[in-house]
Amino acid sequence: MNSQIQTDCWFLFCLMWLLSWSCAVIADAPEAKQMSESGPAIESQAVNQSENSQGTTEQSLFHVRIVQSKEEAANTEARERSTSQHEQEDLKAQIRSADAAEKQVVLTGWAVTFSAIGILGLLGTIWLTRSSVQQAARSADAANANAASLISAERAYVKMSILDPGVQWRNDDRQFYVQVEVKNFGRTPATVTDTRVYASIREHGDLLPTEFPYPPRGEEARHTGFLVPGEDFSFEKHFPMAKSSPRQDSSKRLWIFGHVDYIALGNRYRFGFARLYEPVLDGGKRNIMTVTEGRYDFDRERKSD
User: Fold this and answer.
1) What is the DSSP string of 114-152?
2) Which pLDDT tens digit goes with each residue over 43-86?
3) Is residue 17 a contact partner of residue 72, using CB atoms and an 8 Å limit?
4) CB of 217 within 8 A of CB of 211?
5) Is the full-model pTM beyond 0.90?
C-alpha cells in the first residue's frame, strides 16, 4: 500500500511539473510580440531621420547656395532615392523577421503544450495499465486460492492406521505383528503408489526422529491399489525381536511408524504416522498410543519420490 501511494504522489508531481513548464514557455511569447511592435517605432525613427536630413538639406540650401549641374543633381537624387529604398527594405525585413519570430514562439508554445498533453496521456495510460496489471494479479491470486481451496475440499485423503488391538505377540515375545489399514477418507478417488511400515526399539525417553529411520528397502513388499472414496485395504506386518522385549525390559520402548504415498487429482501426497507401544495396556482394547511429542502425524504434498 505504501509503495502504491508513493508511486501515485510521484505521478502527480510529474503532472504539475509538466503543466508549469508549459505555462512558462507560453508566457515567453509576449517578448517576441514586443520585438515585432518595435518595428513601427524603428520605421518612424528612420522616417524622422530622413525628414531631419531633408530639413537640414533644405536649411543648408536656404542659407548656402550650392550650384550643381543638372547631371550632378540627378545623380544626387538617385543616390538618395536608392539609400531611402534600401532603408525601407531593411526595415520591412526586420518587421518580417520579428513577425516570423513571434509566430515561431507561438507555434513552439503550442507544440510544447501538445507535447505535455501527450506526455500526460502517456503517463495516465501507464498508470492505468499498472493498475490493471495489479488488479489482474490480485484476481489471479484469488482464483488460485479458490482453486487450492476447492482441491483441498474435494481431493482424496488416504490414511494409514494400525487396527486394534495394536501390537500382537507370538513365540514367547520373540515376534510381534500389527494389522495395518489403508483407507481413502476423501471425496475423490486416489491411487496408492507405496506403503512402508517399520518398528524401532529405543531407550526410554529417546524420541523418534521426524525423518523416520527406515532400513534399506530390500525385498519388503509394496502394497498399492486404487481406492474410491470410503474404500480401504489392509495387510499384516511381522517383526522379529532382535533385542529384549519392552514387555520384560522397562527401559526400552517400541515405536511403530510408517507412511503411504498416493496420488489425488494429479498431485502426489504422503501421509505419515508414528505410534508408541505401552505394555501396561496389553489385554485391553488398544495397546498403542498416539505420540504427542514431535510432529509425526502429517499429510503433505510430495515434491519428489
Assistant:
1) HHHHHHHHHHHHHHHHHHHHHHHHHHHHHHHHHHHHHHH
2) 444 445 445 444 444 444 455 566 667 777 788 888 888 888 88
3) no
4) no
5) no
